[in-house]
């Protein structure tokens, strides 16, 4: 997973570029703390099974089938761990706070 930067003004106006790649979970909301750190909420992340489902199409189809047959079937592909990641203005990780069993973290402030 990754976050991209969209330029609103200046010589790169209208262009996008990578801000941070290979996030440990799904990004949801980015907030600046005003001191050069951006906090990215990561409500959950993929398990090994989930990463395999992304990579192999047939596993995705099996996962979709399981989800339709039993409620919460796709939950096996997710790890029950929420996190918030702090990154600097260049996209370098400077902090990571996680909690096993706590999901739904959509942002953070310092």
Q: Concise description?
A:
With 110 residues, this protein is α+β, with helices and mostly antiparallel strands. The chain contains two helices and eight strands; from the N terminus they run βββββααβββ.
Any descriptors?
110 residues, alpha+beta, four-stranded antiparallel β-sheet, two-stranded antiparallel sheet, 2 helices, 8 strands, globular, Strictosidine synthase conserved region domain-containing protein
Question: Overview of this structure, please?
Answer:
It comes from Taxus chinensis (Chinese yew). One of its GO terms (molecular function) is hydrolase activity. This is Strictosidine synthase conserved region domain-containing protein. The protein is α+β, with helices and mostly antiparallel strands. The chain folds into 2 domains: 24-44 and 80-110; 47-79, no CATH class. The protein has helices at residues 48-55, 57-69, and strands at residues 3-6, 16-20, 28-32, 38-42, 45-46, 78-79, 81-87, 93-100. It has a 4-stranded antiparallel β-sheet, with no helix packed on it. α1 (48-55) packs across α2. The longest helix is centred in the middle third of the chain and has 13 residues, at 57-69. The chain is globular, with a radius of gyration of 16 Å.
